[in-house]
Write a structure and sequence with these properties.
41% of the residues lie in helices and 8% in strands. By secondary structure, it is of the alpha/beta class. The chain has one domain (12-261): Creatininase (Rossmann fold), CATH 3.40.50. It has a four-stranded parallel sheet, with helices on both faces. β1, α2 and β2 (73-75) form a beta-alpha-beta unit. α2 crosses α6. It is globular.
């Protein structure tokens, strides 16, 4: 097919669309994917924006899949700072208080609703946000006059991730999974020369601390001295592409399922 005959996929990124295009998507009852993530240390080899970059990429891919299947969709601008107090001792990290994060989520969802949208999927890309987001979902549902669903993107394709991973069953931190996805998405941001040092305790050791019968909050230095949980030395861009594709496919399927919105 000639280059000028290639069909251009509709744009789905809010910040790249004009107001009239966004208004048309609202009129079409488009589903809004809202990425929420974090800016925090990711070991010696990855940038601090990993969670935001990966979550936004998964949402972009999912939105494109949904549009291709005839489901109107738009990806809202990502919220790049979340709950990352546990990473602060490493430096280079940013965090919000729970009260502030709740207020930002509420105001963002209210603004999306005011723009004419009635269905919002908050897509989380940071493990430290997950429990708070689940707890706040009920508050947001009462505060915002729109239907709101919440998810963490890497929890949607756990079986697919587990089948690809070598040393772990799911996404940990700056690990085989996240590093593989970054190699597929933005390999120029990965310090390959630092990969030999990019490993930390295995998942079972971290789980023993985080999932103890009686738990006391500790920062991330109690779990790892490198800032990594898992082993980034297993990372590969081919795996990363599979992870991104699986997560996007699962998100598109769940977000467009009529049962979610009835």
């Amino acid at each position: 097919m000639a280059e000028n005959e290639t069909k251009r996929m509709p744009e789905t990124a809010w910040e790249r669309l004009r107001a009239d295009e966004i208004n048309a998507l609202a009129q079409a009852d488009a589903i809004v994917l809202l990425p929420v993530a974090s800016t925090e240390q990711h070991g010696p080899h990855l940038p601090t924006g990993v969670d935001t970059l990966l979550c936004t990429a998964v949402c972009d891919r999912a939105a494109a899949l949904m549009q291709a299947q005839g489901e109107a969709c738009i990806r809202a601008p990502a919220m790049p700072v979340g709950l990352a107090a546990h990473h602060m001792p490493f430096g280079g990290s940013l965090t919000l208080s729970l009260t502030t994060w709740h207020a930002l989520l509420r105001d963002m969802c209210l603004a999306i609703g005011a723009a004419g949208f009635s269905r919002i999927v908050i897509v989380n890309g940071h493990g430290g946000n997950a429990s708070a987001l689940n707890a706040l979902s009920g508050e947001l549902a009462r505060e915002v006059p729109a239907r709101i669903a919440v998810t963490t993107y890497f929890s949607l394709a756990e079986a697919e991730f587990a089948a690809i991973l070598e040393d772990q069953r799911g996404v940990l931190h700056a690990c085989e999974a996240e590093t593989s996805m970054m190699l597929a998405l933005a390999q120029d941001l990965v310090r390959r020369d630092a990969l030999p040092q990019a490993f930390g305790p295995p998942a079972r050791d971290a789980a023993a601390v985080l999932g103890a019968p009686m738990h006391r909050w500790r920062d991330f230095t109690a779990l790892t001295q490198t800032g990594v949980i898992g082993d980034a030395r297993r990372a590969d861009p081919g795996k990363g592409e599979k992870f991104l594709a699986a997560a996007a496919k699962a998100l598109a399927a769940k977000a467009s399922d009529p049962a979610l919105w009835t």
